[in-house]
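Quick one: structure tokens for this chain, please?
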Amino acid sequence: MATAKQEPAALTWQQNPDDIIVLANRTGNNYILDLPTGRYRLDAKRRMRTMRSILKYPQIIALINEGSLAVE
């Protein structure tokens, strides 16, 4: 039985490496981040890869300003 060769799906989004950051929890505390996409738990001493646009949310800005979170 012959199968039709499928074309690869076209990418609809091209990432820009400058838009990707690592947000690091520098404390021993776990944080629940209230993001537009839902809640995200960032555990103590852990990091998350995310979009730079996360830096516009007040909760994230406050945690960075107090030194709890850092952009790597």
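The two ends are 53 Å apart (CA to CA).
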